[in-house]
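Supplementary Text 2. Reproducibility record for the structural model of the 96-residue chain.

All settings were left at their defaults, and a single model was retained for analysis rather than an ensemble. We include the record here because the model underlies the residue-level annotations in Supplementary Table 4.
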Amino acid sequence: MTRFVEHRSALPFGPVVELHVRHDADSETPVSATVSVNTFGASPDPEAFPRPLPAADAFLQALAYAERVGIACVWINDPGGCFPPEKRPVRDASAP
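Retained model, structure tokens:
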């Protein structure tokens, strides 16, 4: 089961999917997000997410990737707080 981590100090040892939300200073909504897979600062899968995505898509793809490859943790780096738990996009866990 994948869990979400809000604080870097709570990251486990081993691979982590990182979601970094980028903001436009003139907008309240996030512009894009980057997703990466990291283990202690090195990426075991540098081609997994080659470019920034719309923030909601990045969130769903990060979760789907973590579940597919068995990574237990997704770290949300969202300094503007645009994706608190109640606003995060959801996915039906029973869907393929």
